[in-house]
Automatic annotation (TrEMBL):
Single annotated GO MF: ATP binding
Xref: PANTHER family: AMINO ACID IMPORT ATP-BINDING PROTEIN (PTHR43166), GLUTAMATE_ASPARTATE IMPORT ATP-BINDING PROTEIN GLTL (PTHR43166:SF9)
UniProt cross-references to CDD domains, sorted A to Z: ABC_HisP_GlnQ
Designated gene of the protein: ehuA
Pfam families membership: ABC_tran
Taxonomic path: Bacteria, Bacillati, Bacillota, Bacilli, Bacillales
Protein name, per record: Ectoine/hydroxyectoine ABC transporter ATP-binding protein EhuA
Keywords: Amino-acid transport, ATP-binding, Cell membrane, Membrane, Nucleotide-binding, Transport
Membrane topology: Peripheral membrane protein
Localization per record: Cell membrane
Source superkingdom: Bacteria
Domain ABC transporter: 6-251
Length: 255
């Protein structure tokens, strides 16, 4: 078996005295597309925020490409990771949020070149070419010199996706990226994500309430309930033949 790209081992997470993740074991293979579904408050966002190193597990381990997130090995012992180690691990991970978080004072093109130039050290011309190609792919090749405020929500979200993908991460995290959008722009954003997914290279973890989208894009659906993985499997099985009553009643809401 190939080494998992992402692995959670018995991960627990508490906020104050409340345990919101209660022992998560989950691996994602290179290139695999995983949809994370479940009721609000079940812990989906916390799972992906931990991978982005925005939250630290209370106990358990997370590795990316075999490298522990919060620890590093020194002479065979695991010691707490320093900022340099975290930066390296984060370089494998891209994230798109519900709110696009574009830099308002930068053009669309600059939004997509600043990290490749400043973080990856790619020459400006090369970064611009990469960004232009990607922005063209998401249908915004004619908006390079516009500013975020001049674009619709759906267009801004497509920029946010392009900005993450130009970094060529090994895994992309999408946290309910359509839930803050006007209904008429949801489709165009999902279409862009699907196109990128179809290219196959990057693994993806998608938190979504769009069940048709999950069916189209995901190789596997994971159903989270009260901080545990209650059920998982191929989309067909999870959406057509849910085993547990909890998943059945969760899916009822989308019919
Ligand atoms: P989901 O994404 O499935 O809606 P979350 O991961 O956002 O769930 O939240 C899981 C639980 O953890 C919720 O009860 C939420 O209130 C709580 N929680 C999340 N982040 C924090 C935080 N920073 N401080 C306190 N509680 C939090």
């Amino acid at each position: 078996m190939t080494q998992p790209l992402v692995e959670y081992k018995d991960v627990h997470k508490s906020f104050d005295d409340v345990e919101v993740l209660k022992g998560i074991d989950l691996s994602v293979a290179p290139g695999e597309k995983l949809a994370l579904i479940g009721p609000s408050g079940s812990g989906k966002t916390t799972i992906i925020r931990m991978l982005m190193t925005l939250e630290q597990p209370t106990s358990g381990y997370i590795t990316v490409d075999g490298t522990p997130l919060w620890h590093k090995e020194v002479n065979g012992n695991l010691v707490p990771a320093d900022e340099k180690h975290l930066r390296q691990v984060r370089g494998n991970i891209g994230m798109v949020f519900q709110h696009f978080n574009l830099f308002p004072h930068m053009t669309i093109l600059k939004n997509c070149t600043s990290a490749p130039v400043n973080v990856l050290g790619i020459p400006k011309e090369e970064a611009e070419q990469r960004a232009k190609d990607m922005l063209t792919k998401v249908g915004l090749g004619d908006k390079l010199d516009s500013y975020p405020a001049q674009l619709s929500g759906g267009q801004q979200q497509r920029v946010a996706i392009a900005r993450a993908v130009v970094m060529r991460p090994k895994v992309m995290l999408f946290d309910e990226v359509t839930s803050a959008l006007d209904p008429e722009t949801v489709g165009e954003v999902l279409e862009v994500i699907k196109d990128i997914a179809d290219e196959g290279e990057m693994a993806m973890i998608l938190v979504t309430h769009e069940m048709d989208f999950a069916r189209d894009v995901a190789d596997r659906i994971v159903f989270l309930e009260s901080g545990v993985i209650a059920e998982q499997g191929p989309p067909q099985q999870i959406l057509e033949n849910p085993e547990s009553e909890r998943l059945q009643s969760f899916l009822e809401r989308f019919r």
